Amino acid sequence: MLQPRMELRDRIEVKRGDDKPPIDVYRYYAKNRDSWKDHDTILMSTPGGGFISMPPPCHEDALTAWAKRTGLPVISVNYKKAPEYPFPWSIEECFDLYQSILQTKGKVIGLSGEKEIKIILAGDSAQVSI
């Protein structure tokens, strides 16, 4: 599958707390990158991989297609994996990101922080357990 052109395709870190490493987040957006901040709905993907493999780049065909077809900002969590970070680390990490997005009204991922945020959750394989 040929990936659609993205106006925004990058990687950011979201702080998680003093004693925990930051959360690695991939961002995908097909529209004008300046309009990313104006959204109040995002799609948050937690890619599968049995909690041990498959970071977001392995799922870019789906992630970029969702961004193109929905017109929404799409984020994908590159959660820490076992064995270095045993279960349930990845689930807690994704939940912390979810809470942080809601609490900051999306400011932690580059949204304006002025609107309540709606999050559409997507996942496959092991990460459906979230």
TrEMBL record:
Please give the SUPFAM superfamilies that the UniProt record associates with this protein. Answer: alpha/beta-Hydrolases
Give start-end of the signal peptide. Answer: none
- InterPro entries per record: AB_hydrolase_3, AB_hydrolase_fold
Report domain Alpha/beta hydrolase fold-3 positions.
48-126
- Which Gene Ontology BP annotations are present? triglyceride catabolic process
Q: Which protein are we looking at?
A: Alpha/beta hydrolase fold-3 domain-containing protein
Classify the source by domain of life: Eukaryota
Offer one Pfam family short name for this entry: Abhydrolase_3
One GO cellular component assignment for this chain's record is:
cytosol
Q: Which residues form a coiled coil?
A: none
Q: Which GO molecular function, any one, fits this protein according to its record? A: sterol ester esterase activity
